[in-house]
Amino acid sequence: MKEDPAAAAPVVVRLFLVDDHPLVRDGLRARLGAMPGLEIVGEAGSGAEALALIGPAQPHLVLMDVGMKDMNGIELAALLLQQQQQHQQPAPHIVMLSMYDNPEYVQKALQVGARGYVLKDAPAAEIVAAIEAVSAGGTFLSPAVSKKLFRNQTPRPLLTPRESEILSALGRGESSKQIARDLGLSVRTVEAHRQSIKRRLGIEGQAELIKYAVEHAREFGGQG
Hints:
Elements: H1 5-8, E1 13-18, H2 22-32, E2 38-44, H3 47-57, E3 61-65, H4 73-86, E4 93-98, H5 103-112, E5 116-119, H6 124-135, E6 140-141, H7 143-150, H8 161-171, H9 176-183, H10 187-201, H11 206-220
Parallel strand pairs: 1-2, 1-3, 3-4, 4-5, 5-6
Helix pairs in contact: 3-4, 4-5, 5-11, 8-10, 8-11, 9-10
């Protein structure tokens, strides 16, 4: 029996770097360039340069600085996702890389569509974990960021026990496929629960659901 070459080929994540400090980009290339299954397909030193180069590079994931001189990373992420939508191109996943653990920055980043938020002083393993989680369809926040987001939150027990389990798993960065496997459900069932959660909470899109899950997951983690 012949082996299907396409099935055997490893999945390579195409990564694009955006940071206005060349030394930071050099450091990221050194950390990530040799990572198996990862290819750095381009980089930019400003928001304007990123908008011009990311489309042609067709990355799966963009690792983006929040604090840049011409425009901040949150503005850039919103413009980039809008640009890709206008051109009917698949939008890359975005992971923010920042010096700031301010919950307001994190919430705004998630609101515009970012799937991860990692602190610049985090260990290299944390950046790798963020890339792996987001590439697999999940989300990732640096632990220090999560602590600030979850502090002083008030529980809102509006969900069924199963929905609470799924919301908690979404907040931990798990994809529907991972949740289905862990809970012994079909992916279709998990997706149906996600739609139900959005209806119950009055949430419209996926980005808003992920934002809510990240903010409130621990509140619902014990209800299942």
